[in-house]
Model the fold of this input.
Amino acid sequence: MFYLVLSLVLLGIFAAIIGFISQRRHGETPVVQAPAGDCASCDGVSASCEQECMMEAATKPVEYFEDEELDVYRGRPSDAYTEAEIEQFAEILETLRPDEVKAWNRSLILRGINMPDGIKDEFIELAG
Done:
């Protein structure tokens, strides 16, 4: 039993020495970064893709789509908009390129703005 424990300790010391030498020889350990994916390519089937994009977006500054005026609706429930306010959202949605629609929705979510119920069908159609 003593020889088994002694050999495991010596093996651990040997591995630590090899690791130390390898690190010194190759310099700083490179930082592994995940490949940059295109969040516009999320198809809605993979929830992990959408979740990863939301997590990535949360670490970056919020992207605006010339819609800073929508910040006044932060925290408002999606069923509490007037027709004029819904039209304001719809105008912005209709000016977006197809590849910007999902990113705009992420922007609204990160800013705490609930999309009005009145344009959700149109959003789903454009995002799909």
Observations:
- The CA atoms of residues 5 and 76 lie 65 Å apart.
- The radius of gyration is 25 Å.
